[in-house]
């Protein structure tokens, strides 16, 4: 394992070095939070693919392939479909808003009151996403270094918090590009073909697999539908995803770069499923499907390659964790803390650029340490992430998408949708269980009915506000420019 140790150590040192380099580029709030809105197609595609494909997509995708066969690709496929839908239909408009958070978008569209509830819900979601991504480090460090779970969480979490706090989105973007390349090489170029060849090729592998493993629906139609509701729609409204859209140089980069990243996700989904199927053919009686990724890596890959593939899995986790961490810090600092500060001090003017960078950097450190502590003590991470996604989609999907596509939607309708969807989700999670499908089904339905009914029953948004919103979405000035002076 000495060579594998060196490969992993080299990767971790490279990530820290790239993160330190990114510190030099973070000279303003825009640089720190959204990479100065300067990313071109290549970097945008790589960083978007990196943030949406984390440990759940890599190790979890292999586990689902081991358990259900090709239909195990459904979860990551739903993520790819969500990214495609976001990129094709909404990302250009989102990029032109030139804001920093989803709550700011809701404030522009409906008024300041709409951002209060959404900011809190989005903060809980992004923090829990950071926690679950941090916990996933244990699965890699345990295979390679045989360290306790808490030590793996602290080691991985400290590295992510360190480079994220150094240069913000610039450090995260540069490290994401390294992680995107390593992940592509490790999973798609190395692990996938080696695993399939070890299993005897596709034809022999198919003969050795249980019945139904080649069916695209063996995981269950209801499960696939739930994945679409949670992950496809979650991609449309998550702060961690929107914050990457804000980094695009222009709306064309956001559209085409995101589309390329979405297609990459679909390929990655199938790769994970096929790796899991190969593992099932080779090792059909594992004690737990959660061991599938570690088993195929340990027993089929040569020295050195094993270290690179584990680095690829680690890179997937780190990219998602860093994206969730900066998203959580941005929401906490800009939507919650800044609002409380203005109400307490009554100051209309915000802090200068250096203070903005300092406060956002501090938020990353504080929330990063919080995520590490929670990750060390939390038991049921699946339940925690499910709660976060249910609240996010059930409470915020309808008012966010409604604000983008329906002119008649207004502030009372948005607030009613958030409250009705959130209460329905919480109530049904208590009654039916945290992992039940009913909370998200009926939560979305309640939010939609409340949004449409209350919007139609109350006064429309003032025309001046609607016109200002339309201009903002179109990338035009919020007010018409003054006519040029006439010269004689």
UniProtKB/TrEMBL annotation:
**Which cellular compartments is it found in?**
Membrane
Looking up InterPro entries in the UniProt record yields: Na/Glc_symporter_sf, Na/solute_symporter, Na/solute_symporter_CS, Sodium:Solute_Symporter
Tell me, in one coarse class, where this protein mainly resides: membrane
**Keywords per UniProt:** Cell membrane, Membrane, Transmembrane, Transmembrane helix, Transport
Task: Respond yes or no to whether keyword Membrane is given for this record.
Answer: yes
* Membrane-spanning ranges: 6-22, 42-62, 68-92, 113-138, 150-173, 180-199, 219-242, 254-278, 308-332, 362-381, 387-406, 413-434, 440-458
The topology of this chain with respect to the membrane is:
Multi-pass membrane protein
Gene Ontology cellular component annotations, sorted alphabetically: plasma membrane
| GO terms classed as biological process | carboxylic acid transport
Q: Name one Pfam family in it.
A: SSF
Q: Which GO terms describe its molecular function?
A: transmembrane transporter activity
Q: Which family does this protein fall into?
A: Belongs to the sodium:solute symporter (SSF) (TC 2.A.21) family.
Question: What is this protein's record name?
Answer: Sodium:solute symporter
């Amino acid at each position: 394992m000495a060579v594998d140790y060196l490969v992993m150590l080299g990767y971790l040192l490279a990530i820290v070095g790239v993160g330190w380099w990114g510190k030099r580029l973070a000279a303003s709030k825009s640089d720190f939070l959204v990479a100065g809105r300067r990313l071109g197609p290549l970097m945008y595609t790589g960083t978007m693919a990196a943030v949406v494909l984390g440990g759940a997509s890599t190790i979890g995708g292999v586990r689902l392939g081991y358990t259900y066969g090709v239909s195990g690709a459904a979860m990551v496929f739903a993520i790819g479909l969500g990214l495609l839908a976001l990129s094709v239909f909404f990302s250009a408009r989102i990029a032109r808003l030139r804001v920093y958070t989803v709550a700011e978008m809701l404030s522009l569209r409906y008024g300041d009151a709409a951002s209060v509830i959404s900011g809190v819900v989005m903060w809980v979601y992004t923090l829990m996403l950071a926690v679950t991504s941090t916990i996933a480090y244990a699965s890699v460090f345990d295979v390679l270094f045989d360290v306790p779970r808490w030590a793996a969480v602290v080691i991985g979490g400290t590295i992510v918090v360190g480079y994220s706090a150094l240069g913000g989105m610039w450090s995260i973007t540069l490290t994401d590009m390294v992680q995107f390349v390593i992940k592509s090489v490790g999973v798609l170029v190395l692990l996938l073909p080696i695993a399939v060849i070890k299993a005897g090729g596709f034809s022999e592998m198919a003969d050795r697999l249980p019945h139904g493993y080649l069916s695209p629906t063996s995981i269950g139609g209801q499960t696939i539908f739930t994945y679409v509701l949670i992950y496809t729609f979650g991609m449309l409204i998550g702060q961690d995803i929107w914050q990457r859209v804000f980094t695009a140089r222009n709306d064309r980069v956001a559209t085409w770069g995101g589309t390329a990243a979405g297609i990459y996700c679909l390929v990655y989904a199938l790769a994970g499923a096929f790796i899991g199927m190969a593992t099932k053919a080779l090792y059909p009686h594992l004690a737990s499907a959660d061991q599938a990724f570690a088993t195929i890596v340990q027993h089929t890959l040569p020295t050195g390659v094993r270290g690179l593939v584990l680095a690829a899995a680690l890179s997937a986790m780190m990219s998602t964790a860093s994206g969730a961490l900066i998203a959580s810090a941005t929401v906490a600092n800009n939507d919650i803390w800044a609002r409380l500060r203005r109400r307490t001090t009554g100051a209309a003017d915000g802090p200068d650029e250096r203070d903005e960078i300092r406060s956002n950097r501090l938020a990353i450190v504080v929330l990063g340490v919080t995520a590490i502590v929670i990750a060390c003590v939390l038991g049921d991470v699946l339940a925690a992430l499910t709660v976060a996604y249910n609240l996010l989609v059930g409470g915020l999907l309808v008012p966010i998408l409604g604000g983008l596509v329906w002119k008649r939607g207004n502030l009372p309708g948005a607030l009613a949708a958030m409250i009705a969807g959130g209460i329905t989700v919480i109530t049904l999670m208590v009654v039916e269980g945290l992992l039940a499908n009913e909370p998200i089904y009926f939560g979305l339905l309640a939010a939609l009915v409340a949004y449409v009914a209350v919007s139609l029953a109350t006064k429309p948004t003032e025309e001046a506000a609607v016109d200002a919103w339309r201009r903002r979405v179109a990338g035009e000035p919020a007010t018409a420019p003054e006519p040029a002076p006439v010269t004689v």
